[in-house]
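Let us work through a complete example step by step.
Step 1: write down the sequence.
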Amino acid sequence: MDNLALWQRYQDWLYYNEDLGIYLDISRISFSDAQIEQLKPKFDKAFKDIEALEAGAIANPDENRMVGHYWLRDPDLAPTAKLRQDIIDTNNSVIDFQQQIHSGAIHPPSGGKFTDILSIGIGGSALGPQFVAQALAPDQPPLKIHFIDNTDPAGIDKVIANIGDRLETTLVSVISKSGGTPETRNGMLEVKKVYQDRNLDFASHAFAITGKNSKLEAIAEREGWLAIFPMRDWVGGRTSELSPVGLVAAALQGIDIKAMLEGAKAMDALTRNHNLKDNPAALLAMAWYCAGNGRGEKDMVILPYKDSLLLFSRYLQQLIMESLGKEKDLDGNVVNQGIAVYGNKGSTDQHAYVQQLREGVNNFFLTFIEVLKDRTGEYVEIEPDITSGDYLKGFLLGTRTALNDKQRDSITITIPKVNERIVGALIALYERGVSIYASLVNINAYHQPGVEAGKKAAASVLEIQKQVVDTLKQTSSPVSLAELADRANASDEIETIYKIVRHLYANDRGIMVQGNIGKPDTIKISWQG
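Step 2: predict the structure and record it as tokens.
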């Protein structure tokens, strides 16, 4: 297709909303008019599915839950007056908490004001807040945020070390819907010990974001934490950024959460349009469908040309892959659906993996995110009439052209600037795009049995570890790996037992090993204590 034909295709498919200043260009995705015609019945169903979701239909049959993250930014949509008022009251309580922290009305026991936030959570309880902090936090925020988002001891130690002497003025946020998420519980217990070791009262520094009647709520109430904010069962972790999960931390950093909610509400309204060309989320879902033949045959590469959007791809990984990665469709057929997501930022990635994208295996489609506003200050000419921002734009457009020349599909989203309203709109755009795509491929985007299976498997490993340690404590002489597995009644888990022994031995956890640890058949194991 020559340049004039591409220009006409661009104009034919360009979406623009003047209010938000957002452009969506899917013209460089390979699709035909015939494909669009074939998809019309699927889109008709998808639009009805969206209406049912927003009306309060049960969308997560595993847990008999509604899905209502849309109501968070437009409480009038909530299916009951009680829910509506609960959302309004919660948002008001977030703002009230922010004001009390910023004013010093709520302060550390030592006096003064809180200076930092330590956020403990994982998955949706970390990825959204991390993305928003990177994108929107001011250079000198009222409170600087830190994250513990894993159960890696060295990682926890590093975060604590970075906070240093400011621990006594650090506000600790613990985020877990059930209160039983192991990674979050572990992080909380580790941080509690640090506070205890420094003779600081943890409860006077902590607040919880959790589900009603959860284990975490009980702990926070019993110990007298500063506040408890709700995680509702109708908001999934990956769509929770515009709930207290993301709003509390954002507000404390000085981010305008009302503008984020307003941007999401505005985008939600645009994505209710039943006309394909006037619905940006439907266009996005259509592009994904056509690029991967409705089977996720191509990976989604996210490439924002703005440093502040660095973590957008990580945030979208969970939103998209956890929502769309499903073994079975709604009819029980094995379909193994999903779209793999990865990315970093432009133009950095032009010096990393764009070489393969242009000339290697054609197993992806790329989403460029262009930001029109270069910087808030005055521009600097690095050549006559040329700025660094001009180079960034040139790299984006040049890479788009170079990929198109090799028949590599791409989408381009253009936003006016990175601010609260636009970030809220981007979050809502992708949330709705996921919902529509899931309907197109006939899967449920709002349950995640694979995640639960992984959690159960991890728990079983820890049970085996307890059996191994108990067995060794009762064994008087060194035993082989096979003997240990047999005595622990876990002969079929000998590989797992070997890896448990290796881990305990590496960490001086009471295990004595004779022989070559790298050759399992040669070792004898005993308990040293």
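Step 3: interpret the result. The longest helix spans residues 449-473.
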